[in-house]
Amino acid sequence: MMARIGKLFGVGVGPGDPELVTMKTVRLIREAHVVAYLAARQRPSNARRAIESYLRPDHIELPMFYPVTTEKLPPPFSYEDALTKFYDESAATLAEHLDAGRDVAMLCEGDPFFYGSFMYYYHRLAERYETIVVPGVCAMVASAAVLGAPLVHQTQTLSVLSGVLSADELTQRLKVADAVAIMKLGSNFKKVRDVLDALGLSDRALYVERATMEAQKILPIAEVDDATVPYFSMILVPGLWNGR
Amino acid sequence: MMARIGKLFGVGVGPGDPELVTMKTVRLIREAHVVAYLAARQRPSNARRAIESYLRPDHIELPMFYPVTTEKLPPPFSYEDALTKFYDESAATLAEHLDAGRDVAMLCEGDPFFYGSFMYYYHRLAERYETIVVPGVCAMVASAAVLGAPLVHQTQTLSVLSGVLSADELTQRLKVADAVAIMKLGSNFKKVRDVLDALGLSDRALYVERATMEAQKILPIAEVDDATVPYFSMILVPGLWNGR
């Protein structure tokens, strides 16, 4: 008799609010033997918190801790190399569970394929194991909802930009977009705000931190302290309404 | 005693699969007195189908039928005018329910604020009535999930484009984007495919119809019959993986 091989589920858990998890993600977590998630050693996992009420004592919980980032690595090593090694090793751990016949649900903040780290595991495992991806509510649309801001209309173009782009690149891209979402702010916030100011877009730009989480904060963009902008923050420049 | 005024809930119901509805949308539909949705007279509503199992006999169901589109209107009237009148009148109907103290859940395919028609009602009603927007799984991330295609990575830029753009505009925007989603294909499909061909992007482009619905269809883009492309279809050009 062939041994049963487990399935891998990449499940989007939404932006933070436990009620913004889909029925399908809830079902697959309940049916899985192993619940895996990426985490930082220093703080609780947002993804785990969103689905905490569905965890059972007999679930095998598998937090996968990112390598410590504070130490400067001696050349020729880099943080990127350390990350690649970490993805390789944690994917091997997932594969052990799958080979043993255990289904694994990997929790993904927001959506697994929209800037999600699940792709590192998908690339390593999807050819060898049956893999099912469950889409989720991404932080971008959750931010629009809590800001009360229709994001993009009819035939408008939406650009999703990373705050790490240079001021020049941001400027070029902002000039041609009807609506914009800017992610990965953190230490890039000041640069992004300066670009929006220079383009006269600050009046249309909206800012939110930790949308739908308990610690959600909405601030006028001019009042944001650029020293304390978290990773889970976003600027939206909604498309203009045509008045209809 | 003040009469109770109803609340308006704009609830994302996701891309079609009834399991891709969030817990919050389910709860608010259950708690609402009125369940409203936009619909075409000729065919069943996709949004209603996604949440059908949560409807009760005592729900007031309020389908709002788009004006018939086949007749050419005599000048100075236009279909746009007819639509504006339709939004005004259907918003007034919603307001009657709210004034009578009934909570209204308006169903929104995908997400309410991501190219959603809910914005027409939000603009008309949100200042007068307490309005809560519940984000949903949008068709874009659902398409990436069923295609097994990580859409956008790390610091990449994602452009969400409408197929109605001209070939020139599409070309300019495709040239500078790392990852692309092209919506509103339908009769624009041939133009879009020609542009992708000319840019050498056809090999990376993926096509899906009715992602997560029962009638979902995935086809190589070269094999799509451009005469039969439905509104609910999408092309994705995923960002390139850096191999890590």
Question: Could you characterize the architecture of this molecule?
Answer:
The structure is a homodimer of 244-residue chains. Chain A has 244 residues and is of the alpha/beta class. In chain A, 30% of the residues lie in helices and 20% in strands. Chain A has helices spanning 23-31, 46-51, 79-99, 118-125, 139-147, 167-176, 189-198, and strands at 8-12, 34-39, 60-65, 104-108, 131-134, 158-162, 179-183, 206-209, 217-219, 233-237. In chain A, the strands form two sheets. The first copy, chain A, has a five-stranded parallel beta sheet with strand order 3-2-4-1-5, sandwiched between helices. In chain A, helix 6 crosses helix 7 (189-198). Chain A is globular, with a radius of gyration of 20 Å. The mean pLDDT of chain A is 94. Strand 6 of chain A pairs antiparallel with strand 6 of chain B, so a sheet runs across the interface.
Biggest interface pair, residues each? A-B, 65 and 65 residues
Which architecture name of the largest domain in chain A does CATH use? 3-Layer(aba) Sandwich
Oligomer: homodimer
CATH superfamily of the largest domain in chain A: Tetrapyrrole methylase, N-terminal domain
CATH class of the largest domain in chain A: Alpha Beta
* Helix percentage range of chain A: 25-40%
User: Radius of gyration of chain A in whole Å, from Cα?
Assistant: 20 Å
SSE run of chain A: EHEHEHEHEHEHEHEEE
In percent, how much strand structure appears in the residues of chain A?
A: 15-25%
Uncertain spans of chain A = none
Give average pLDDT of chain A, whole number. Answer: 94
Number of strands of chain A: 10
Largest sheet of chain A: 5 strands, parallel
Strand numbers in spatial order across the main sheet of chain A: 3-2-4-1-5
Structurally, the number of domains of chain A stands at 2
